[in-house]
Amino acid sequence: MNISILGSTGSIGTQSLQVVDDLKGIKDINVVAITGNSNISLLEMQARRYSPQMVVVADESKYTDIKTRLNDTDIEVLCGEEGLCAAATAKDTDMVLSSIVGFAGLVPTMKAIEAGKAIALANKETLVTAGSIFMEAIKKNDVPLIPVDSEHSAIFQSLQGGKKGELRKILLTASGGPFFGKSREDLQNIKKEQALKHPNWSMGAKITIDSATLMNKGLEVIEAKWLFGVELSDIEVVVHRESIIHSMVEFCDKSIIAQLSLPSMKHPIQYAFTYPDRLLSPDESVDFPTLGSMTFAKPDEETFRCLALAKNAGEMGGIMPTVLNAANEVAVAKFLKDEITFLEIPEIVEKAMSDYKNNLNPTLLDIIEVDREIRNKG
Ligand code: NDP
Ligand code: MG
Fold this sequence. Notes:
The chain is 46% helix and 15% strand. The chain has helices spanning 11-22, 40-50, 63-69, 80-89, 106-114, 124-141, 150-158, 184-187, 192-195, 205-213, 215-228, 266-274, 288-291, 305-316, 320-336, 344-355, 364-377; strands spanning 2-6, 30-36, 54-57, 76-79, 95-98, 118-121, 145-147, 167-174, 235-239, 245-251, 256-260. Strands 4-3-2-1-5-6-7 form a seven-stranded parallel beta sheet, with helices on both faces. Strands 9-8-10-11 form a four-stranded mixed beta sheet, with helices on one face. The protein starts with a strand and ends with a helix. Magnesium ion binds at residues 149-151, 220.
């Protein structure tokens, strides 16, 4: 199989290259294109190790640097959104791993779908912001869409235990993040260093903050709605601190099927690469006696308002999830620069949502326009 990895220098991207290594001799995967944005030395290292046909840097100001570094190779070096789209549609590519963070992944992923590439989707923001258009394109071009987000991979795997019409509800698990059990008062003086410490997962900065605010779970509720064609009311978020059950589905006979494994993104990435097969993995097994117990709780949507806001945006539909997503990206970037407090993140998102009049049938251009407007307002 030939793959293009959009966002190869990120947390998901680097783990996907480890999976490529793990699968050597079991299922050989040829890396056709890789893309990065700021981490030029890692991009160069990856280029030398995996010898792709194409290397793309999204940030155009870094083009000369990476081009010069790779001058002694015959790798094609491109930049900008055009370059990302070239990586997403490269002739020899069978599957595109969409693992750029945020809205920047949308256009290249749409191009990959239009070019008939199978999609392994980590970038949840694309489905949140353009779910209807995205899923229509998937159907129209008849391309496989395999979730990489651990919960959605778990749901995708669990659904194989029944037929489509038999599904009753989705139980989306949440670790609760680093501030589970805290009150709004406790959250007032949170520093970004505390928010960046996730108890179970090591991830990129943006999704780690989203996990601390529970916006990540909100985005995942919308993601699940689109991926599995269910109503938001059929998705229940359950806090499960241990992150062993990655999500569950309940069928009409009240049987629940779940997918369990130790918390490692290499599991869902490998499953996306090998689906419909299951192949050997070097990962550790769950040791139940050592684990001892698993716990479950209701999420606290009053303290962690981002979850409620995302559900609202999902219910409203139209352009609202785009507004929510863009305002959240802006707010998280500001929090990471120490420009706002932790509790201002939901305030900024809520204000943006109340400032916008909904447009129930946005086109891709409307979505791009509204996203840009919100970012420009900053
Ligand atoms: P990272 O921040 O670790 O990596 C993001 C990748 O996107 C990097 O390759 C980065 O390049 C690149 N990038 C950043 N900004 C841009 C831009 N403007 N244009 C093009 N490329 C850009 O993120 P993660 O790997 O954590 O997450 C990636 C996606 O996967 C997100 O949508 C996240 O929600 C989702 N996801 C992540 C999980 C995880 O465990 N990490 C779990 C489930 C989903 P560079 O590093 O060179 O700047
Ligand atoms: Mg997840």
